[in-house]
Design goal:
Elements: H1 2-19, H2 31-35, H3 41-50, H4 57-60, E1 64-66, E2 74-84, E3 87-94, E4 98-103, H5 109-115, E5 128-139, E6 146-156, E7 165-176
Antiparallel strand pairs: 1-2, 2-3, 3-4, 4-7, 5-6, 6-7
Helix pairs in contact: 1-3
Length: 181
């Protein structure tokens, strides 16, 4: 069931992106805009799907794939540094639905204060927090599908990247078919 809903949602998102193909070029997406939550969820999905393309994707952008040391993160070295939250980096990571800059910041709490993000694990060395930017539910009158879009600004640290802080954006879209709760 989960696979069907995921596939259906992916199909809906891809169809939406392709319907606006003349207006939208995933290769034109600026990675800083993606990390700073300046994309719509369908734009982000269209962009992230193209990264694995053999004839384009990350290679076309000049990115170099790196080992992340974390099964849940795909890591890339950018050809030139970007600035995120006032810090320069050339390393980014992608998770299932997020893109994050890897910053040389050992303690994420100062960035979290700047971004107005609370730690879900206070009093520990673990930092995981988010600030919700968008949470909208839309029902397609033709299909009866309910599409929920949630975009959040994220800050975290992970054991695979000691002394680093991950800052970025999560683009989450879920689809419920008619009659599903």
């Amino acid at each position: 069931m989960i696979a069907r809903v995921f596939f259906t949602g992916l199909l809906l998102i891809t169809t939406t992106v392709l319907a606006h193909a003349e207006e939208y070029d995933p290769n034109a997406v600026n990675i800083v805009d993606a990390i700073d939550c300046k994309l719509e969820a369908p734009q982000y999905m269209g962009f992230s799907i193209t990264l694995g393309d053999e004839d384009g994707g990350f290679k076309k952008r000049g990115w170099k794939k790196q080992e992340s040391g974390n099964l849940f993160l795909s890591q890339y070295l950018l050809p030139s540094p970007i600035t995120i939250a006032g810090h320069e980096t050339s390393t980014i990571v992608f998770s299932a639905n997020a893109v994050l800059a890897v910053l040389d910041v050992a303690d994420p709490s100062q960035l979290a204060l700047q971004e107005n993000i609370q730690n879900s694990f206070p009093g520990t060395d673990k930092f995981l927090g988010e600030r919700e930017l968008i949470n909208k539910v839309e029902k397609d009158q033709e299909t009866g599908w309910t599409v929920t879009t949630r975009i959040t600004r994220n800050i975290s640290n992970v054991s695979s990247h000691p002394g680093k802080t991950l800052v970025g954006c999560s683009y989450d879209t879920s689809v419920k078919l008619p009659g599903e709760e």
